[in-house]
Amino acid sequence: MPGRTVAETAALVRSGEMSAHAVVQEALDRIEECDGALGAFVHVDAEGALQRASAVDRLVADGIDPGPMAGIPLGVKELHPVDGWPFAMGSTLYAERIADHTCTLVQRAVSAGAVPIGVTASPEFGRASFTASAVHGVTRNPWNLDLTPGGSSGGSAAAVAAGMVPIATGTDGAGSLRIPASYCGLVGFKATYGLVPRGPRHVGAADNDHYGVLTRTVRDTARFLDCVCGIDPFDRASLPASTRFEDHLTADLRGLRVAFTPDLGNAPSDTQVVEVVRTAAEKFVAATGAQSVPAQVCVDPDCGAAYRTLSAPDVHTHLRDAPAGRNIHPTLRGYLDAAGAMTAETLADAHEARARLVATMAEAFERFDLLLLPATQVPAFAAEGPMPTEIAGQKVDHWGALAVTLPFNLTGQPAVSVPAGVVGGAPVGLQIVGRRHADALVLAAASADAALTCWSDRFRECETAARKWPLDRAEFTLAARFRVRFTLAIPVR
Questions:
Q1: Is the pTM of this model over 0.85?
Q2: CA-derived radius of gyration, the chain
Q3: How do strand 73-77 and strand 115-120 relate by DSSP bridges?
Q4: 152 labelled catalytic
Q5: Contact 102, 27 (CB under 8 A)
Q6: What is the pLDDT of residues 155-213, one digit of tens each?
Q7: Core-most of 5, 111, 232, 472, by most CB within 10 Å?
Q8: In whole angstroms, what is the distance from residue 33 CA to residue 41 CA?
Q9: Has 77 been annotated as catalytic?
Q10: Which of 184, 390, 180, 179 is nearest to 270 (CA)?
């Protein structure tokens, strides 16, 4: 598993050169070896995964192609239900809940030959940019165990970065694919809103949440998208799949108009992060033959308040049945307070702010084709949190710490984080943003940039270091964790 991409592994399985059973067993062994120090997985279905892998092998033996994801071990973020698996969403409210259905995203991946292997950690309801919860504990960054892998898809990011699985699902409501990708040196792509289906029974009216995956390579991301995109009758916002993304990764980018902004006009950002990303952006322009043009973009700072207002009802939906006196995380409290204070006027103001932002970006993208900027405003911070309250000398609230990512959730534009360099002991990412529906172009740009970073050598260093992690960094011993989790019981960490 370590060192092989999704495309490489699937080719070996489809040809019969390697069995899916062996691939999955390799992933399980890797989890047992590494996850005691990371806390990336909160449930592992070893028996079920091996059974599904054997089913893939039987198809190959019968001369039937199991699909482009043949035998690929898939981590599933705990916000994505899988029938019969724990579905806590990082919350003590649902610590005993078992999913009674499987989301479309996972269903389609399985139809393409993927093998779901377990549930990866998320903060409660995915509402933080570091991964820790009262029900599951703290998840750590494989590059540096003192640091966070980001959030809310931090469990998926840690699992992929440590080589436990080559791909894992995630969500991006305000940056939760791009932030973990940035901190773990991965590819985290947020497609145009609606391109990746969210059915069935997705709860949320804010139209900010995007589904996707975390991978090590752009090609792996493109392959996954080609397997899962398309209209879903259970998702009113779903869009048709208009192209095969894997076929367009080598598009000619010469002459493309590319703009760089360190801060979207007003987002405070760490100077070291900005300089690393700026250098990566300059290399990208020079290597691709693109044309550098001024960004001249200034995002309304009221975007954060608009995002909070539009998202507050979704959080209220999860917590409205919470018992009186329950201790609410400060981030969730902020959403609940906004929901309680909401009036028709505040809701109208939020929609107007969103409309202004969409117009601002539409006008800006008349001047350029791609916008490059940091994927995170600060280096990876402490694994236990909290999120930063001050950046570059400026005080920020929860939404101000997401000021370079959440605007593109409000607009629904495609955006990806790819590795740019290392700051403070962990990677940081270059974010590439395109117009709505320019997903193929964004992925082609990400693929061209990835070719410049030679990141595979760094991953091998990370995987080697994993074997030396001290088990006492885990919140309880590896053996104890897997005695619980491999018997399919609800994990308690």
A1: yes
A2: 21
A3: parallel
A4: yes
A5: no
A6: 999 999 999 999 999 999 999 999 999 999 999 999 999 999 999 988 777 789 999 99
A7: 232
A8: 12
A9: yes
A10: 390
